[in-house]
Amino acid sequence: MIGRVEEIARPRDFIVRDIEICKTQIVVTRDLDGKINAFHNVCSHRTNKVVLEARGSAPAFACSYHKWVFGLDGSLRGVPDADGFIGLDKSKCGLQKVACETWNGFIFVNLEREPNVTLKEFLGAFGETWDGLYLPFVDNPVIIVADLECNWKAIADGFSEAYHGAAIHPNTIGGVFLTKDNPFGRPHDMQFRGPHHWAVISGNPDYTLPEAFQIERLVSSGGISTTGNSFGGESQNEIDRMLAHPAINGSGANPWINELTGIFPNFHIDLSPGGFWTHQFWPVSPSRTRWESKWYIANATDLRTRFQQEHYVAKLSEIMLEDVGNVERVQQGIESRVKPFMELGDPEALIRHTLFHLDKWINAASAAEALAD
C-alpha cells in the first residue's frame, strides 16, 4: 500500500514514495482523465531522478539533468535536440510503469514488471469481506513517523497482539480492554483469509476514567475507545457509517473495542468506536524500519473539539511511545543469536500466521503459487 486516493484528489496531483528496501522511488499521479498512474522515478535518458518534490501538482515532469519531459501517464513528451538521437522511439522511452490498483481508497502497487496476480486476486476473500468499508476523515490524518533500529517484523508483531497490554500500558489504555476474566487481552475472535487476517478485541464494560485523569474527564464525551473518546455530533455520524459495515465485530464482542486487520505483509488497518487508524512498516534494511502511523480525525469546527483533539494527540503519542519502546531491545536480542526460536501463545496467533505465510512467499516461485492453498 503506497497511499490514498485523497492524496491525489485532483487531476495533475502527484505523490512520491520511497521503497528503500527495493532501492527505488515511486511516483503516483492522477492524469487529466482522472486515472491513477504509477511509475519508477528514474529518467529514461541517464537515470536521474525526475520528480524532486514529495508531493504537488504539475501538468508534466521535466528532468533537471537534460530537460526530458514526461507526461502524467509517464510517457515521454519532449526531448531537447531530438534529432541528435538516431532512431529514438519516444513511445518506448517513457518512465517505467508500475502496476497500480485501488481498494477502499487505498492505492496498491506491484513492482513486478508483469504482475503474476491482480490486486483482487491478492486480497482474495479478505478483500471481499471488507470491501465497501466507509472510512471517515480520510483527508485529515495525524501522522507519526519514526526510524527505528529494528527489523520490520519486530515492530509489526508488537501491533499484532494485545497480550502486552498489562505490561506495557497499565497506566494508559490497559484498563480499557483488560478485565478480571480476560487479564491478558486474549482476542474475542480471529479470522484468517489467505495471508491476511483480523482479530476482534473486546473491551472492559466496567471501565471508567480514573479520578486522576482530570483533563481527560473534562474532554470526554462518554463511551470507551482505544483511541480516545469520539467527538460527538457530525463526527459521530461519520464514525457510525464506518461501524455499520457488516464485517465489523462479526463475532459479537460486547463491548467491542477494536478490530485489528492485517493486509500481508506490512499494512494494518485498525477500527474502533472512536474511529480508525493505520500502521505501515517499511523495511529499510534487515535491522532498520520506517514506521508510519496515521490516525484519522475530524476537522475541528469549534474550540471544544480542538481541545479534545489536542489532548487526544498528546495521549496517543504517549501510548505509541510505550508500544515502540521495546522494539530496539528486541532487535538486539535477535542479533545476539542466543535464542534459535520464539515461544508464541494463542493470543499471538496473528504473528504465527504472518510467519507461516512469509515462509511460504519466500519459498514460492511466484505470487500465484504463494497464494495457492
UniProtKB/TrEMBL annotation:
GO MF term (any one): iron ion binding
Co-factor requirement: Fe cation
KW DNA repair (keyword) present: no
Enzyme Commission (EC) number: 1.14.12.12
Manganese found in the keyword field: no
Domain Rieske: 3-109
Keywords of the record: 2Fe-2S, Dioxygenase, Iron, Iron-sulfur, Metal-binding, Oxidoreductase, Plasmid
Top-tier EC class: oxidoreductase
Top-level lineage group: Bacteria
Protein's name according to its UniProt entry: Putative dioxygenase
Native source species: Sphingomonas sp. JE1
